[in-house]
Predict the 3D structure of the following.
Amino acid sequence: GEDVEQSLFLSVREGDSSVINCTYTDSSSTYLYWYKQEPGAGLQLLTYIFSNMDMKQDQRLTVLLNKKDKHLSLRIADTQTGDSAIYFCAESGDMRFGAGTRLTVKP
Amino acid sequence: EPEVTQTPSHQVTQMGQEVILRCVPISNHLYFYWYRQILGQKVEFLVSFYNNEISEKSEIFDDQFSVERPDGSNFTLKIRSTKLEDSAMYFCASGTAPLHFGNGTRLTVT
């Protein structure tokens, strides 16, 4: 069935860049989103990209979209311990979420 | 910045009881949603609501679930007879592109 796929875990050292990847299936999605969930908390919208864009940069965050391959990535520059969380990608077509990538940042 | 608020933050109920989870969406939003997240699992779509009716629902949203907008500000999710497997975080969201989520209600069914 159709699904949004993400790798489940990513571990990086503080100060390194993190890259979280996602593949989606609904080519009609107008927007693709990244949400952040800290332990016990809700879903915080981090950033989103319109489907006719290839890249969007927002401070330390860079979103890359390869529409042909239906691949979305989130790069966090200079990753900090406060970035440790679960990151979900989601597509707007039917608002399906990936399973989330747990990012662990080691000091 | 306006936000989606959900109450209560944590609800404990016994199996078979009815629960109502409450949400106040952002005031000028027209689309409303409920999602759930079983502990450690993915966020799952339950239902979307527009113009005072359900616009879409998933197979999870069976006859035990219902939604209502009882007044101009609240949006509720009712589970008629809770089961153990209903234990999850329930998130309300409003808006379109992007959705804005509340902080969730943790429902524990014992």
